[in-house]
Design a protein that fits this description.
The chain is built from five helices and nine strands. The protein is of the alpha+beta class. It has a domain at 3-13 and 21-74 and 131-202. Strands 6-8-9 form a three-stranded mixed beta sheet, with no helix packed on it. The structure holds zinc ion (3 copies).
């Protein structure tokens, strides 16, 4: 099977197709991933970000952080046509806060959860995109196996700033600090390319969404 043709989306019921596409990744289970990569020695980090496991972890962190950037308070935005009182859609698109009010999702233990979103007042000053930042990495640890304290919601601006100003510690499996691993030149270390939001949730391809120049996952897990 060609990975890029795997079109079956993992639905997140947000009563909003765009939102579901955004927070949903192409549905793929760990078993399917292992099957797809059975002849390879490892599965790239970004492929694990396509699983429902990561989607659940991501929503858990977004829910904990009230779907707000923990740096500036930024909230998810979207470009949308405005519908007037006659039901006519405006010809141009307007930058608005995402209007999803409730998201139903399933956590890593299989429990059904609901998040009620608090949409900010007023209009957004610029487009925001919420990303989940890893404060540290451990080699060969699956993205959803990190403690929640290791993860935080940041907007695209604060996320970029964090990677510009702070060196993210990377540890090997034995707990040794790996120094001079180098940041990905494409995404600057964030692992996201906001312009590619519609493609694999904006995951940076060269670094497999890890932001670093070493393989975060380098063996079969
Ligand atoms: Zn921010
Ligand atoms: Zn980050
Ligand atoms: Zn990158």
């Amino acid at each position: 099977m060609n990975l890029e043709e795997y079109k079956d989306y993992c639905k997140v019921d947000g009563h909003d197709k765009l939102f579901a596409d955004k927070y949903g990744f192409h549905k793929i289970s760990l078993d399917e991933l292992n099957e797809l990569y059975r002849n390879e020695t490892f599965i790239p980090y970004a492929q694990y970000l396509r699983t429902c496991n990561w989607k659940s972890k991501r929503l858990e962190i977004l829910d904990r952080d009230s779907f707000r950037c923990q740096g500036c308070g930024g909230y998810e935005t979207e470009n949308k046509q405005i519908v007037d009182v006659f039901g006519m859609k405006s010809s141009s698109k307007h930058l608005l806060w995402k209007d999803t009010k409730v998201i139903h999702w399933t956590d890593l233990s299989g429990n059904k959860r609901s998040s009620t979103l608090n949409i900010p007042e007023g209009k957004p000053d610029k487009p925001y995109n919420l990303q989940v930042h890893h404060k540290r990495y451990v080699q060969n640890r699956l993205p959803w196996e990190y403690d929640n304290e290791d993860l935080i919601v940041l907007c695209n601006y604060c996320h970029k700033q964090e990677h510009d100003n702070t060196e993210i510690l990377v540890f090997d499996e034995l707990g040794n600090n790996i120094k001079d691993y180098g940041k990905c030149g494409k995404c600057g270390g964030t692992g996201y390319i906001p312009e590619y939001n519609q493609v694999q949730g904006g995951v940076c391809f060269p670094c497999h969404g890890a932001g670093v120049n070493i393989l975060l996952i380098n063996k079969k897990l």
